Amino acid sequence: MTSAQLRRAREALDSFAVETPSWGFADTGTRFGKFFQDAAAIDLGDKLADAGHVHALTGCCPTVAVHVLWDFKPGQDPKAVARLARKHGVKIGAINPNLFQDQCYKWGSFGNGDAAVRAAALRHCLDSIAIGKAVGSDYLSLWFADGTNYPGQDDIRARKARFTEALRACHAKLGPKQTMLVEYKPFEPAFYATDIADWGMAFLLAKKAGPRAKVLVDTGHHYNAQNIEQIVAWLLDEDMLGGFHFNDRRYADDDLTLGSIDPYQVFRIFHEIHAFAADRGRAPKIAYMIDQCHNEKPKIEATIQTVVMAQELYAKAALVDHAALRRAQAKANVVDAELILKRAFFTDVAPALASWRKANRLPSDPLAEHRRQGYARAAAKDRARRRKELGIGRGGSFA
Asked: Which position among 77, 145, 214, 303 has the lowest Cβ density within 10 Å, counted as fewest Cβ atoms?
């Protein structure tokens, strides 16, 4: 790397933070069942301890996304949760309502034809907004399992209207520093018509909700042929990109570690963000978050892999020569334009990462340091004992 490249990469790393998910540290599974890990978190204290451990190793994961029904006990003081997070060296990040688990949501939440169910879903979201205010969270992150599986099952336009009304009601209760993120997913569990199936639907609903509603892009929530960086570029241009859920996929929502299948795609996404910042003279406010549940890889190791890969690809994308790229584009010089991206992608940014970690008194290899410390072995031993003492069984599906 040249000295100029080293400087640009380090500046990019200085400004880059990734939020870890509380649910990523606990036992999770598929719709068919769970495969357990001895070191998996039992409770929120364990989750926050694991998240704090990852942040201590990587230096770029200061916040933890939480799931309201999974992480907050009924009647619990949210500020006590915030204090517990600080004890472990992190803060509470995005607040995620749970609008898919209760039996009343069989036919949907905001899209449900039953006004009483919609009211219950709205109350839960308003409670989640209040929790966010109490813990100082900037984001309400909304994902919906709503949709239909059969033609004629429900009125598609009526469901759209119900969503519009409920999202507007949520937006009206946001605090002055809170942003509402609207996520989309093409299918699962609704396979005929998912109510928010793509970025355009999320965009329109967010615009109708209000000025502090933005779109959340989950990198796993797309069909294989979709150009995610084009979606990102359009949302940036419309000031509607609010955040990401990082993972990778072979098919759709596979929850694989970032860059395990297609690191060049993630690089291209980051390039669009860096290019936007270069053109506008300011970096966009984007919440970078992980959304992964690992059944095969050790949970903390997988999280560290994703964080380190995100840092590497973000630093690589910062090395693109935007002036040279614009000149090549102006001349329709396709070969040179592509090569400018490829040169940045294939640049070894290890020296920049090493320099940045040394300056921030971080281990040179976060994954190796995690293994050296024996954190997972100690956690597995402690949590096995506590599960036995608490009489905790391990069954069910997903989370």
From this structure: 77
Global pTM? 0.95
| Alpha carbons 373 and 367: distance in angstroms, whole number | 10
CA angle, residues 181, 187, 192, in degrees to nearest 5: 125
Running DSSP on this structure, what letter comes out for residue 182?
E
Contact present, 312 and 58 (Cβ < 8 Å): no
pLDDT at 397 over 60: no
- Pick from 180, 178, 269, 179: which is nearest to 220 by CA? 269
Spatial distance between the Cα atoms of 200 and 158, rounded to a whole number of angstroms: 18
CB 21 within 8 A of CB 41: no
Give the residue-averaged pLDDT of 181-199: 97
Pairing of strands 29-30, 33-34: antiparallel
| Residue 309 CB contacts under 8 Å (≥ 6 apart), including other chains | 257, 258, 259, 263, 266
395: confidence class by pLDDT, cuts 50, 70, 90: low
Beta-carbon count within 10 A of 398 CB: 14
pLDDT, position 399: 61
